[in-house]
């Protein structure tokens, strides 16, 4: 209930934000994407090269989001916020709470991140937009992850994201793709701690493809490789999402997610719902 | 699992590569037709000019422009870009925009006005995108000069 209340009140905040006039707004509708669940601009699971919000070179943007992921035995609630400085630097912060239903256990994690746009423009440059990002993660109480074999309660992911929007290439429809390479030792994105006795950081690939059905709706898929440091059969993640951008102050994303095996419990698929406000 | 991801990316590249080759030869004339030909482009430019006239951000850039000169130039330009039977021999993009200090947000605002004008004229979304794809490469000759 508490989580639901938090989700609803954040939704109200996002709606409120969406009614206020803004300074940033130079990007084209939908092109910044939404917020992925670790706080960076992206799809739902994968960080993209775009920086959050509608700021262009001489604008500043602020955005906030809340996301709920509900699969068979786990619920993850995340809320976070981003600053976009001149479409060059994105600063992000997110808090996550994972409800492990079979154990009536809650795991909480905080994530501070930044993303630097190195080159390119998603829409206009002949080559893709390229950004370098960092996520620093800290678990509140890692007793259970330690018991499962994790080595740390904190970890840092570094990723390089490459994204491009192609105007009109699919029978006139716009197509967006993204590839992210991430160096990580996080177990289940850090919610089960970082590393393990015999494990070392790995370079893993994540990808997204989306089609804009019109200027307000995007339909896409994502895939995210994951390590299996704890030997619990940690699976790769995937999702199928639809995102709605009614205006430059609001987006709503719904997805079906397949998280595979989590903490040795199989078949964790379910839904994903996210609301994001842009100012 | 990684194999599947790589296979997916590969097929994506193939899909992206194909229309790039097929589109250039056969696609041009159909865009001109899909925009409604001469009449369609005339209507589109008229709507666009009206929208610019009402836009606080963009109107100042047209302060010293002649509307009839712009109408003629933009109409011919769109006709040529969409593969129609016209040749644009007006001023070059850099000649027109040098000194205007147009930034990324201004450029996108103009794109939005053009999209709204196309919507008002019932031009379908995929046709809009095909036109934008041909205009987008000009951005480098328009902004920051």
UniProtKB/TrEMBL annotation, chain A:
UniProt cross-references to InterPro entries, sorted A to Z: DUF3034
Signal peptide: 1-24
Listed name of the protein: DUF3034 family protein
Superkingdom: Bacteria
Pfam families: DUF3034 (PF11231)
Keywords noted in UniProt: Signal
TrEMBL record, chain B:
Keywords: Heme, Iron, Metal-binding, Signal, Transport
Superkingdom per UniProt: Bacteria
Gene3D superfamilies in the cross-refs: Globins (1.10.490.10)
Molecular functions per Gene Ontology: heme binding; metal ion binding; oxygen binding
Signal peptide: 1-22
Glycoprotein listed as a keyword: no
Ligand binding (heme): 97
Protein name: Group 1 truncated hemoglobin
